[in-house]
Each structure stands twice: as C-alpha cells, then as structure tokens.
From TrEMBL, chains A, B:
Keywords: Hydrolase, Multifunctional enzyme, NADP, One-carbon metabolism, Oxidoreductase, Photorespiration
Protein name as catalogued: Bifunctional protein FolD
UniProt entry tagged with the keyword Oxidoreductase: yes
Family of this protein: Belongs to the tetrahydrofolate dehydrogenase/cyclohydrolase family.
Pathway given in the UniProt record: One-carbon metabolism; tetrahydrofolate interconversion
PANTHER family xrefs: C-1-TETRAHYDROFOLATE SYNTHASE, CYTOPLASMIC-RELATED (PTHR48099), METHYLENETETRAHYDROFOLATE DEHYDROGENASE (PTHR48099:SF13)
Alphabetical list of Gene3D superfamilies matching this protein: Leucine Dehydrogenase, chain A, domain 1, NAD(P)-binding Rossmann-like Domain
Domain of life the protein comes from: Eukaryota
Source species: Quillaja saponaria (Soap bark tree)
Function according to Swiss-Prot or TrEMBL: Catalyzes the oxidation of 5,10-methylenetetrahydrofolate to 5,10-methenyltetrahydrofolate and then the hydrolysis of 5,10-methenyltetrahydrofolate to 10-formyltetrahydrofolate.
Length: 352, 352
C-alpha cells in the first residue's frame, strides 16, 4: 500500500485557503467514474456532410468549461472536508485497487489520487500483480469493505482477463461503491421513486454540466450514444430521472444520425475519435462529449493530441453549447468521485 | 394461509395429460409481473387523426394471440414440472403475500393461484389486514425468504399507504424475487454482460410475443411508452438487451406521437384507455398493448368492457401486428410468473 502524493499542489492549496474563508456553502452531492468501455462501433468513412444541414458561419457554440466548474466543486468539497475535520476530527478516505501495469490505469489512478490529496481525502492504494488470482483480489476488496475508516472503494478497470470484472464489482460493498457500478446502485438509479447511494461519476458530471450551463432537461429530447455501465447506461437512466425523453443509440442502430439530429441534448460515449460529425446534430443542440482519445500527431510535442468522440470544429458551427476535450467532462468526473467519497463519509459520520 | 384452488381446471387437466405425452421439449425461460402502475398522463381530446397518415382500408393487422401462446407455454411448464416430480419427488412452490381487501388485487391473486394449480406449482398465501404494520409484513416475507420449500415470493402491489413499497421489495430475497422488482435484479437487467435471476413478467411476455410472432428486434426502432418498474422500465431495458434502439416516452414528453410514429415496435404502458391512436403509429409497426382497463359500458352484460391503451380499431388499420386486450400480453404475463417460479425451483434443485 502507498499513499497518493503529487507536486503542483501548492498553488491549489493557496486557492483553497482563500476558498475556506470565502465559500460558506456546503458541497452539493455529485458523482464520479471515468473508465471508458466503449461500444464496438465500426469506423466508417462518412464525411458527416449531409445535404440540408445548415452550418452557421457566424456564431460558434458556447464552450462548457468543465475545468473551471470542476475547480469550483473541488474548492467547495475541500472547504466542507476542512470544516468536518475541525468539528469532529474525522475525514473521508478512498481506497483504490489497482491490478497490473496498464499505463492508462496508472495515469487515471494518479489523477484521482492527486485530486483526493488536494481536497483532503485520505487514500489507500492496494496494488496487485497482473497475474493475481480472483481470490487475492476479493480478499483485498473484503478488507476495504470491512475497514470502517474507508468510505469509498474503486477497483480500477479494466481488469486482466483471468479476473471476472462483474464478480469483483458485485463484491464491493454497495455502501462504499463510489464508482456506482454495483448492480444494486444501478437498479436504484434505474427505478422511479428510488435513489441510489452512488451514481456513476461521468453521468453525474454530465448532468452537472448541463444544469450549471442552464440547460433545461425536463421534456427535452436527449440522445445518448453508447450503453456502457460506466457512461452510456447510467447517463440514459439519469437523464430519464430528470424527465428527458431519452433515446439510446448503439452499434446496432441503423442510421444513428437520423436519431441524433432530433436531439436537444446529445451525449456521446461512442469511443471513436471524431465519430460524431456536425451533420449528426440539430441546430442549437447541447453536446456533451464523454470521449477521450489520444490521436497520433507528429506535429505535437508528445506525438499525439487528445480529442473526443465529437468532431469539435464541425460541431461548434451547429451546436448551441459543447464540452471541449480535454477540459470538459473529464475534470468534472473526477470531482464527482471526490463528491461521492465525501457523501459516503458524511453518511458514515451521520452528518447526512 | 390458504391453498389456492379453483374450478374449471378439469378441461385443462385433460389437455395437460395429452401434452405430457406429446410435448418432449423442456420449458424455455420466460418471466412474470402484471401490476400496472401507469405514468401520470394528462388525458386529452386529441382525435388521433394527423394529416399525412395513411390508413389502409383493405388489410388489417395480424392479431398476436397471447391466449394460445400462454397456453402452449403453460403446457410445457406443466410437463416439465411433472417430469421433475417423477424424477426427484420435488415441485416448485410460490408464496403470495396479499395485504388488504382491494378487489383488483384479489382478482389478480386468484388468476395467479389458478394458473399455478393448473401447472402443478404449489402455493402458499399469506393474507394480512389493510392496517397491518411494516414489521408484520416484513416478518411474513422473512419467513418465506427462509423457507427452503418456497422458490418464489410475490407481494401483491399496490400496498396500503402506511407501508413503504420500496422497502418491502428490498426485503424479498433476490433469489426468490419472481416478480423481478428487486433493484439488484433490475440493475443486472440494465447492465450489459449481466443476467438478472428474474426479469419482470410483463416485459418477458412482451419479448416472448415478439419473438414468437417472428418480429426481428435487433437494430429496430422501439418506443416504450411508460417508465414504471413493472412494465415500462424493464421492457425498455430488455428491448435494449435484444439490441433494439429504444426511445422511452413518458408524461413529460412533448408531442409523443412524433416519436411513436417512427417506431417499428411500440410498447404501450401509458395507463389510459385508447390513448394511443392510429395516427401515433408507423405503417407496418408491431404494437404490444400492455394496458388493461375496465371501461363503463351499459350495453355490456357486466356494465363494462375491457380495453387496452391502444385504440384497437384504428391501430389495426396501420399496424402489421397487434396484441388484443384482453387476450394479448395478460395471459402470457401470468405464464411468465409460472416460468420464473419453475426456473427458481430448478436452481434450488440444482437442475439449472
């Protein structure tokens, strides 16, 4: 086990210090969970240009700035954790389980641990080798389930093929399932008149961005592209809880652009860079891009650039508002993990 | 406690006897759960006539005969139960919990008990008074949860207002939740790569009717009207598991007919008699009507007639196929309860 620790936190701490004396509001409840398991879509050569679609030339879509929204949420969370610590001497703790050596998993965990550190959430990391057994992994999860100082548990996905992901997720206590992937939490998210203990973070981030941007959801036509448990499914369910009329588009959908171009709100979890073209969008739609892809780019310093599912250059000419990639849903998703962990701790401390 | 017992079973038993010697196939796995909790729709004076909609005058929609499909399923279930009994001397048992004196609840229970009796499923009925406490109800459910001779438990809904329906459903063991309303089963239904132990019966009936009628689901546009846990929600989730492109329409949807008229498959759980007019349908759509309403009718012998959500006379002129009410989804839904109970018993007997 190791404790997550990072640099560049100094500046953030200064901001936090200011926030502690200026932000009296408690953190509202949000969510987290950014491991993308995209649907299997076939990449096509569709140019995205469809006759009859009007690209406005003057006005570009408003950019929904996830970075600053995420920062604001984190400042509030940090402030609330600080107050709880002062009042009762306790603080939230997140346990992270990491199996194997996938570079992307290590990067995600690094980002999560850094974010925890910034807001005052303690962390405990269990690293297991790539070839570990299911029993070994279950044992680690059990220990975190039983540890009363741990309020949230995340098992970084994907797992190596010898491990049954569904079985492991079933094993995480629903009371500490801050990723919101346990079927009990998913069922309570799906069902009317019920509230899950946790909602998957990317979906909570999506709704947060819409609400903060003043987008009315009730009665609107929403199309979610993708059905993964991490993004597409819970986002469809959550939009429905907010009374949107939701259509779910996936790899088996014929002519998906005929459905997406009717949507007031479009959420993409398609998993292919630039798949969603301008012609897929209705004039004035709000676009939430849940994709994050590294695309080879020899002209870039790192040899790649980061892009989303949506062809941004085309979309901004049609949409009313859009999340950029990077700097859109991603940082808010991390803030939602912090928020879920804080909420869980408050329940444990009997403060919620 | 009383044992469910009915008349008019003699004829059925004769048919069963024949089936026992003629039907070698084991029962396939289906589902159950027919308590309709409709969305709150506003009744309107929409005539349902929209310019541009073509009503064919010659050809009427094919009637999807739920009654005969239900009978076929029940014969197979009875045959399988008979074989199990002969082989190991054991049989499935369904426990039914009934609170209060609602006439419709008593009617539903009567139908379910009769169906159980016909196929050889034993029953145990616990009746509690209208003013019973939650503790008393929980105690009864616990007893059934712990009874190894009980394989399925249904708590007839709705419950009196002093009882928390969600809390009671949570209390039913997911392994005996033959209605499929437990959030754990609903979550597993919602999530890709998972299978719930039970799927709500009305939804399973819907898919059964589609498949038996030879309707291709994969890639088709499906619209489900309604989001109740009993019908609308699980039907949306199940259609999605069969790779339909699903849109869910509800009371907050503006101009729902603009969405329904694009559907290849339309499932109605709207809860208002004759709400779905011919103009809401695409030419050649398949219509599954999940509604059952008693409409006052002085000209009828009983003072009412039974109708569905769909205006049948208009719909048959547009649709390719439609379930009638009565005689459509209803009887198959009951068969799915029997099927779920049998499946549960087979798991308990280690035959599945």
């Amino acid at each position: 086990m190791r404790s997550g620790c990072t640099a560049s936190v100094v500046l953030w701490r200064r901001m936090l210090k200011r926030a502690l004396f200026s932000s009296p509001h408690p953190s509202s409840s949000y969510i987290i969970g950014p491991n993308y398991l995209p649907d299997v879509w076939v990449q096509n050569n569709n140019t995205g240009r469809r006759s009859g679609v009007h690209y406005s030339t003057g006005h570009n879509a408003a950019k929904i700035d996830g970075k600053s929204i995420a920062q604001e949420i984190r400042l509030r969370i940090a402030s609330e954790i600080s107050r709880i610590k002062s009042a009762i001497g306790k603080f939230p703790k997140l346990a992270v389980v990491l199996v194997g050596d996938r570079r992307d998993s290590h990067t995600f965990i690094h980002i999560k641990l850094k974010a925890c550190e910034e807001v005052g959430i303690a962390t405990s990391v269990a690293e297991l080798p790539e070839n570990c057994t299911e029993n070994e992994l279950v044992h680690v999860v059990s220990r975190f389930n039983e540890d009363p100082t741990v309020h949230g548990i995340i098992v970084q996905l994907p797992l190596p093929p010898q491990l049954d992901e569904e079985h492991i997720i079933n094993f995480v206590s629903p009371e500490k399932d801050v990723d919101g992937f346990h079927p009990l939490n998913m069922g309570n998210l799906a069902m009317k008149a019920r509230e899950p203990l946790f909602i998957p973070c990317a979906s909570k981030a999506c709704i947060e961005l819409l609400l903060r941007h003043g987008v009315e959801i009730i009665g609107k036509r929403a199309v979610v592209i993708g059905t993964s448990k991490i993004v597409g499914l819970p986002t469809s369910l959550l939009l429905q809880k907010y009374h949107a009329t939701v259509s779910t588009v996936h790899a088996f959908t014929k002519n998906p652009e005929q459905i997406t171009c009717e949507a007031d709100i479009i959420v993409s979890d398609v998993g292919i860079p630039n798949k969603i073209r301008g012609a897929w969008l209705k004039q004035g739609a709000v676009v939430i891009d849940m994709g994050t892809h590294q695309v080879k780019d020899p002209s870039s310093q790192h040899g790649f650039h980061v892009t989303g599912d949506v062809c941004y250059e085309e979309a901004i000419k049609v949409a009313a508002a859009i999340t950029p990639v990077p700097g859109g849903v991603g940082p808010v998703t991390i803030s939602m993990l912090l928020s879920n962990t804080l909420d869980s701790a408050k329940r444990a401390f009997r403060l919620a």
